């Protein structure tokens, strides 16, 4: 069966077109031409017609497209034959071959074969690097529909003028081909066998190919014709699609139809329909080298990760989105997603999974041929050397072209020798030391930060030390200039190295203080300081420079202090940060601080004194490049993909990457992608899985296939959050274990079981936390995560309109904190009620039974009574129970239920305003009540401040009537005998308040100013000013009044 | 002032319901030997009122001069020091507090406070009332550890300190503590008693109540006097003069639970469960204790339920309530109950109606 396929090659490179005759052995492939493909893809196209493989070099408005017509006969015999041929010609050729029909398709290509011999000459003139492409493009399956569409779209982008014209012709052509395949499989396979004929056919292609170079413009007409003829025969569906649909349907009863298009289903990618059914081929390890793949949608038998691994194992590269550099879009069905759109736009060829397998398989078959070829290459090394170099150069441009086998083996040989020498030399040094950057430019990534650091350090002395008088003024004017710098970033990305290098470059003498030194607060005693604590010597150091300010710096070595690992200043280094800050303030030398986590609580104060430079992780490409250099100089043979993988696995930690590489180099001299993966598999497990990922996996459609330990790992990834997420989302899953479930009974009972299990998890959790029974954590994970997910894993569905189909974050945390807040507020209210001594109920009772009535008493009058009366009544009631304005809000807040009318509804805003005014009114004759003296739970504020807050007239609190005031005073005296201090203060203030009216506005203003800054929960956050002002005013009279009141 | 508080009897003599208990208590304290006391009974039956009246009986009016304090205790618990904050209500002779507010650290509260009280023995050395009283509320919510430590300290400091414990259910108080106390069960007042009290209040307030109205309130109050008085006043705020068929407004949260129950009965699906979860959260956030939610929900469901299922549903409610106490995150268990109910009820519906 012959399957045509369109492939695309990108990159600035030249392709050798060669013809190989399967029957005579692979090593006899003849080079028939070279095609240059600057930036544009080479399309390999294998029509059903046998024996033809033609590549065409198209020059079309400056852009080249190579068409390679390519046929694979069967699994063992392959014929590649290429020819250069212009675009239009190919189209003509297609048409003709179709016109001729199925039977004699051989006759047409026969002509093209004649022209073949000429081609090599032309190609060799190009004198370019060589590349064997055709062997990768084996094809077996009929082309998918989208692939047919592919060609025209692509051409459209290249030849702007042909817009609407193209799509249909190509489509049609393929269609016909498909028909050929299906109708006449036998007729085609026969002619294939003989090589001479092959040549003939490809020759004919060539012959026609020469013409169109002149008559380029003429294809428009052709296109039009073609279009008219062919549009009707559109569509028709593909056989495989139907088959797949059928196979999917039985599994869980959700066919593809369940999803509404690719976008809606995002995040619930399905299982490969034939998962594990196909044999994954083994191929040459670099057979995909230089090719970039993008995977889209569900593949036929491979999981996406598996496919990725497969490609990487064979030297290919997998990227996330389609770009110009992408060679193939790997997908088995067109899900109309963004990737496929983009791919069509860019003309990226589509590749099915089988195609991929074929490529890999082909390479393993081609291997012997390759080997022999290599020997040929080796023989005439002098000739090919030049071209090899060229390829090397081109590789650097980023397209990651494959290394020629010859060059590789050569390099390997050479580097092996080198390695022996080198290892003898520096076996003692670790690579991290050995390959430390020697100049600033060697530092990977963060160049701009390094520059900034360099600039800062270079200008430090001018900035801060130049002139003593100038310095101060400058500092005041320019707060942006900081005397110290704080480098932050994850470990192993070169912070310390950059600091050292920059200092070295500028000729500073470095003094490094790191976590191994004690960095506590400097001792005040000088005798201790001199020999003892490091901090003292830092102080010394930092201030000493003062003496040398007037000297010539160039003679005097400049020093820089590098404080490494400042966030590690902990228990032993008491006051270390504060001391460091004061050192920075007085410092006469620049200080570079280095930390991992800039947002650490410890560094909060330090951050204000430092210029902040946050180092970022270098990209994997950057790292791979550097690692490659290292590997090369160590004589290690590694391919770039492997290094990128390594870089990715260590997540930006250059040091770790080098260490790993070093370690691997001890046991092997050739490192492949697979080795890296194996090596780092263990460590990869330890890397953080976000709770969301864990939950996604646990609930995933195929979670049933996870092993128990995998599930355990997932649930243990965050033992607090994962259960919460599961609890939040478990109702959303439609369990796949339940088949057809008309009425949802089974689902409901599964949910009930899951809910119970989650409850078990909660009980376990109490045991763990409360009684520290940590041995139960596995059981906890089992019951809170694994059982619910095992019961309910399946497809996620949304329960609310407009909800996104992703796992929600747990609502419990938020609700719990609201609950705690409300509880605190309720407690405040409770305490106030108790303090009013009118009520004696518990907090629970207060909420359950009193609250409804309290609310009624507080709001009902406002609704029904006239404004003034209502307000008076409410304020009176509040005073009786010492309900403050916040308490009022609490009551309202606690009575609010979602979906029920607002408890404050129906109250005119004018009345509300009047109520607020009434509170303020009260401020003039405000009494200090017992309730005000009670420190509320969780509030650690002296009563004085609270009272000062109450003094503040404009804000909150309830006014008290004078009649009640009398009663209050009495009560106060009774109760306050025990805390004299408080009552004394209170009484002072009371007195103060009484005189306040006379005293006039000034006091008011004072208090207002000082109190203004407070937060909403007023009494707690009063400024100091308020209380002190009040205190001052009262001291004089205070003693007298309190004495009087004590009786 | 609310009627509940206004007409709360201040002395043992004023008591309207439980007069026999009051008289016994009076005798008990006048005979000078006051043992530890454990009051238990349903809420709204007058335990607190009796306790306050008793204290007044013992200490006279000084017992009413209470001070609310938010005290911080520094507790030395082995290797670390724990700061505990608790609101206390204290007079010179007694301290009232709610140790279960301290959560699982209630043990320390119990130990510390009793020690502190033992330290400050009242100076009133006339000999007779040489003790302080410690009123502990909600003893049934104390953890087992706290109850154990209470047991020891009760004996150790019994010379200076009497405990009055107050709880709803004595079954949750350990046997050892119960045996160390004089247990006083306070029954819920009968509906007639409630009606009597309501009429008394109406008379004092000079209100006209139509016949049968008080009875209706009493009926609705599920024999909680406090609730009866509160809803009586609510009715008064809502509408006066009363009419005999006036609606007695339920508590806000009860209405909400009613809503939830009818939601559950209407539809049993994951979607509905999800909505119910939100409503339950709403209740919890508004500080309604989860046990009460569960209980109330069960009642509402039972009202609408087929007799066949009642037994099973009750069983599950009890089951999940127990688990709720063992656990910490109440919502999990409430939801589990709802899910269980839904699955049972759905199966039942389909079996019955196809």
UniProtKB/TrEMBL annotation, chain A:
Compositionally biased intervals (Gly residues): 236-245, 252-264
Keyword Cell division: no
Span of domain BRCT: 283-361
Biased composition (Acidic residues): 215-224, 953-984
Subcellular location: Nucleus
Keyword terms, alphabetized: ATP-binding, DNA replication, Nucleotide-binding, Nucleus
Subunit and interaction comment: Heterotetramer of subunits RFC2, RFC3, RFC4 and RFC5 that can form a complex with RFC1.
Protein name: Replication factor C subunit 1
Taxonomic source organism: Morus notabilis
Record lineage: Eukaryota, Viridiplantae, Streptophyta, Embryophyta, Tracheophyta
Automatic annotation (TrEMBL), chain B:
Superkingdom of the source species: Eukaryota
Domain AAA+ ATPase intervals: 33-192
Main localization category: nucleus
Subcellular location: Nucleus
GO MF terms, alphabetically ordered: ATP binding; DNA binding; DNA clamp loader activity
GO process annotations (BP): DNA repair; DNA strand elongation involved in DNA replication
Family: Belongs to the activator 1 small subunits family.
Name assigned to this protein: Replication factor C subunit 3
Species of provenance: Morus notabilis
């Amino acid at each position: 069966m012959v399957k045509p396929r369109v492939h695309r090659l990108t990159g600035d490179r030249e392709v050798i077109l060669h013809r190989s005759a399967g029957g005579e052995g692979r090593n006899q492939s003849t080079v028939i031409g070279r095609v240059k493909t600057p930036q544009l893809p080479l399309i390999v196209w294998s029509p059903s017609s046998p024996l033809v493989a033609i590549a065409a070099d198209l020059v079309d408005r400056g852009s080249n497209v190579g068409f390679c017509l390519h046929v694979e006969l069967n699994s063992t015999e392959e014929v590649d034959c290429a020819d250069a041929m212009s675009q239009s010609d190919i189209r003509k050729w297609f048409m003709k071959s179709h016109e001729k029909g199925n039977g004699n398709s051989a006759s047409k290509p026969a002509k093209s074969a004649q022209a073949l011999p000429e081609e090599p000459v032309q190609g060799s003139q190009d004198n370019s690097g060589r590349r064997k492409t055709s062997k990768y493009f084996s094809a077996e399956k009929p082309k998918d529909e989208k692939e047919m569409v592919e060609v025209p779209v692509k051409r459209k982008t290249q030849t702007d003028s042909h817009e609407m014209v193209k799509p249909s012709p190509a489509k049609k052509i393929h269609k016909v081909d498909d028909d050929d395949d299906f109708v006449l499989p036998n007729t085609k396979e026969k002619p294939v066998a003989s090589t001479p004929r092959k040549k003939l056919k490809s020759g004919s292609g060539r012959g026609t190919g020469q013409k169109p170079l002149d008559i380029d413009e003429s294809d428009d007409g052709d296109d039009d014709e073609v279009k008219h003829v062919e549009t009707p025969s559109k569509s028709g569906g593909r056989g495989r699609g139907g088959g797949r649909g059928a196979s999917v349907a039985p599994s869980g009863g959700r066919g593809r139809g369940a999803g509404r298009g690719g976008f809606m289903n995002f995040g619930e990618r399905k299982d490969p329909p034939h998962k594990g059914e196909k044999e994954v081929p083994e191929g040459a390890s670099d057979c995909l080298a230089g090719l970039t793949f993008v995977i889209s949608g569900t593949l036929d038998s491979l999981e996406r990760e598996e496919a990725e691994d497969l490609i990487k194992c064979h030297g290919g590269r997998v990227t996330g989105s389609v770009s110009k550099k992408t060679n193939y879009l790997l997908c088995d069905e067109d899900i109309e997603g963004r990737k496929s759109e983009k791919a069509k736009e860019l003309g990226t060829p589509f590749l099915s999974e089988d195609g991929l397998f074929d490529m890999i398989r082909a390479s393993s078959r081609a291997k012997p041929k390759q080997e022999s070829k290599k020997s040929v290459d080796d023989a005439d090394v002098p000739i090919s050397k030049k071209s090899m170099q060229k390829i090397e150069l081109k590789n650097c441009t980023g397209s990651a072209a494959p290394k020629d086998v010859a060059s590789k083996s050569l390099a390997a040989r050479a580097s092996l020798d080198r390695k022996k020498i080198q290892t003898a030399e520096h076996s003692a040094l670790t690579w991290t030391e050995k390959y430390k950057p020697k100049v600033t430019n060697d530092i990977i990534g963060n160049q701009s930060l390094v520059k900034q650091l360099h600039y800062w350090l270079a200008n430090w002395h001018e900035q801060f030390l130049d002139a003593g008088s100038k310095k101060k003024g400058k500092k005041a004017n320019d707060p942006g200039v900081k005397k110290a710098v704080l480098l932050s970033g994850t470990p192993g990305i070169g912070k310390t190295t950059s600091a050292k290098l920059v200092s070295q470059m500028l000729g500073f003498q470095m003094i490094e203080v790191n976590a191994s030194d004690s960095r506590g607060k400097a001792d005040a005693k000088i005798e201790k300081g001199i020999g003892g604590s490091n901090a003292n010597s830092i102080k010394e150091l930092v201030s000493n420079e003062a003496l040398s300010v007037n000297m010539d710096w160039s003679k005097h070595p400049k020093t820089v202090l590098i404080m490494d690992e400042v966030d590690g200043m902990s228990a032993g280094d008491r006051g270390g940060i504060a001391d460091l800050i004061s050192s920075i303030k007085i410092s006469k030398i620049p200080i570079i601080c280095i930390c991992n986590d800039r947002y650490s609580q410890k560094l909060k104060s330090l951050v204000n004194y430092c210029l902040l430079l946050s180092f970022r992780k270098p990209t994997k490409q950057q790292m791979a490049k550097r690692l490659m250099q290292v590997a090369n100089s160590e004589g290690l043979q590694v391919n770039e993909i492997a290094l990128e993988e390594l870089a990715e696995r260590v997540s930006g930690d250059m040091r770790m990457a080098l260490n790993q590489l070093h370690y691997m180099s001890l046991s092997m001299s050739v490192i492949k992608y697979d080795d890296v993966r194996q090596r780092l598999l263990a460590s990869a497990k330890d890397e953080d899985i976000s709770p969301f990922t864990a939950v996604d996996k646990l609930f995933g459609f195929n979670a049933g296939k996870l092993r128990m330990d995998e599930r355990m790992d997932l649930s243990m990834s965050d033992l607090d959050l994962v259960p919460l997420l599961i609890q939040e989302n478990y109702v959303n899953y439609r369990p796949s274990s339940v088949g057809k479930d008309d009425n949802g009974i089974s689902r409901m009972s599964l949910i009930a079981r899951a809910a119970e299990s989650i409850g078990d998890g909660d009980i376990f959790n109490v045991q763990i936390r409360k009684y520290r029974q940590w041995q139960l954590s596995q059981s906890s994970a089992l019951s809170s995560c694994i059982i619910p997910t095992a019961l309910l894993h399946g497809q996620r569905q949304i329960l609310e309109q407009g909800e996104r189909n992703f796992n929600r974050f747990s609502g419990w945390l938020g609700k719990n904190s609201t609950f705690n807040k409300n509880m605190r507020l309720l407690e405040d209210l409770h305490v106030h009620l108790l303090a009013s001594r009118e009520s004696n109920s518990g907090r629970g009772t207060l909420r359950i039974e009193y609250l409804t009535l309290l609310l009624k008493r507080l709001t009902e009058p406002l609704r029904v009574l006239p404004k003034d009366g209502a307000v008076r009544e409410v304020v009176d009631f509040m005073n009786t129970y010492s309900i403050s304005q916040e308490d009022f809000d609490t009551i309202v807040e606690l009575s609010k239920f979602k979906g029920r009318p607002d408890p404050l509804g129906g109250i005119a805003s004018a009345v509300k305003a009047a109520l607020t005014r009434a509170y303020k009114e009260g401020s003039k004759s405000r009494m200090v009540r017992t309730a005000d003296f009670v420190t509320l739970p969780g509030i650690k504020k002296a009563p004085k401040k609270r009272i000062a807050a109450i003094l503040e007239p404009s804000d909150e609190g309830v006014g008290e009537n004078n009649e009640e005031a009398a009663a209050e005073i009495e009560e106060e005296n009774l109760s306050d005998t025990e805390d004299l201090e408080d009552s004394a203060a209170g009484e002072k203030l009371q007195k103060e308040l009484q005189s306040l009216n006379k005293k006039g506005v000034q006091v008011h203003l004072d208090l207002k100013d000082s109190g203004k800054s407070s937060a909403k929960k007023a009494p707690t956050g009063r400024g100091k000013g308020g209380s002190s002002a009040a205190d001052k005013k009262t001291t004089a009279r205070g003693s007298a009044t309190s004495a009087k009141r004590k009786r | 002032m609310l009627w509940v508080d206004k007409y709360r009897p201040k002395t043992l003599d004023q008591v309207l319901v439980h007069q026999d208990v009051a008289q016994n208590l009076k005798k008990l304290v006048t005979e000078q030997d006051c043992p530890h006391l454990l009051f238990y009974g349903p809420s709204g039956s007058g335990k607190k009122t009796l306790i306050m009246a008793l204290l007044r009986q013992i200490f006279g009016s000084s017992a009413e001069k209470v001070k609310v304090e938010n005290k911080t205790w520094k507790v030395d618990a082995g290797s670390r020091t724990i700061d505990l904050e608790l609101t206390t209500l204290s007079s010179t002779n007694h301290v009232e507090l709610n140790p279960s507010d301290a959560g699982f650290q209630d043990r320390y509260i119990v130990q510390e406070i009793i020690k502190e009280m033992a330290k400050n023995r009242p100076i009133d050395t006339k000999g007779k009332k040489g003790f302080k009283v410690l009123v502990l509320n909600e003893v049934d919510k104390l953890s087992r550890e706290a109850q154990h430590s209470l047991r020891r300290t009760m004996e150790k400091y019994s010379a200076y300190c009497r405990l009055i414990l107050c709880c709803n259910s004595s079954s949750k108080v350990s046997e050892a503590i119960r045996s160390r106390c004089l247990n006083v069960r306070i029954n819920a007042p009968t509906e007639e008693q409630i009606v009597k009290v309501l009429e008394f209040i109406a008379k004092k307030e000079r209100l006209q109540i139509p016949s049968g109205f008080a009875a209706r309130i009493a009926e609705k109050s599920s024999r909680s006097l406090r609730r009866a008085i509160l809803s009586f006043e609510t009715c008064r705020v809502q509408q006066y003069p009363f009419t005999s068929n006036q609606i007695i407004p339920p508590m806000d949260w009860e209405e909400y639970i009613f809503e939830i129950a009818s939601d559950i009965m209407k539809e049993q699906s994951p979607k509905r469960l999800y909505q119910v979860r939100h409503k339950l959260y709403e209740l919890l956030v508004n500080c309604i204790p989860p046990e009460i939610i569960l209980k109330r929900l069960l009642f509402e469901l039972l009202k609408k339920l087929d007799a066949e299922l009642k037994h099973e549903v009750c069983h599950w409610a009890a089951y999940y309530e127990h688990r709720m106490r063992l656990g910490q995150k109440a919502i999990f268990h409430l939801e589990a109950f709802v899910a269980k109910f839904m699955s049972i009820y759905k199966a039942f519906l389909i079996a019955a109606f196809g």
